[in-house]
Amino acid sequence: MLVTVVTPSLNGMKWLANCIESVQLQATRNVDIEHVFVDGGSTDGTPEYAASRGCTVLTREEPSVHYAINKGARNSSGELLCVLGCDDILLKGALDTVVRQYQRDRRRWLVGGCVWILEDGRSLGELRAPPTWITARMASSLGWSPFPSVYINRELFLELGGYRSDFHYAGDYELYIRALLREPFSRIRRPLLGSCRRPDNLSKERNAQHLTEHKAVIEMAGPPSDLQRLLNRYFLKIWINAVNPTWSVRKRIGAVGAPRISVTT
Question: Where residue 64 sits, what CATH number does that domain have?
Answer without folding.
Answer: 3.90.550.10
